[in-house]
Amino acid sequence: MVSRGASEATHRPGFVSSYGGYRAPQGMLSWALHRISGLGVLAFLLLHIVDIFLVGYGPGPFNDLLFLYRNPIFRIGEIVLVGAVYYHAANGVRIILIDFWPAAYKIERQLYYIAMAVFIIGFAATAAVMIADML
User: Is residue 85 predicted with pLDDT exceeding 60?
Assistant: First the structure.
């Protein structure tokens, strides 16, 4: 039997023993995260609409709901929400560039990493301020 190198074995269809795990391409990851972050922002928007709707019933029902915003779990949720908004915005700009700039498909991977860098830098700074405010 001829011994095959690792690179040859990994490219052979059906060769399970050399499976090193699935690594999704950045396009698929950005698509999934874009949808998930969009749903998270939409969920918060719906909660905010209900919250503002309660103002119409007077200050009593609105003030009764404010305990929710002071809850530590909700405060962590706000940080996650900011992350979702930042990711959705950075990835949205990347998608716009790819859609409207004909040459952008050639640098799609670089645009993905730029969008991730913008997201991480912006979110880290904002999250630090939000966490400091919680303490």
Answer: yes
Angstrom distance (rounded) from CA 110 to CA 98: 11
Which residue has 């019933």 as its token pair?
Answer: 57
Per-residue pLDDT, 13 = 58
| 25-134 fold | 3 helical TM bundles of succinate and fumarate reductases (1.20.1300)
Q: 123-131 long-range contacts, Cβ below 8 Å, gap at least 24? A: 123/82, 123/83, 123/86, 123/87, 126/82, 126/86, 127/79, 127/82, 127/83, 130/75, 130/78, 130/79, 130/82, 131/79
* pLDDT tens for each residue of 13-52: 555 555 566 666 778 888 999 999 999 999 999 988 988 8
Ranges of each domain in the chain: 25-134
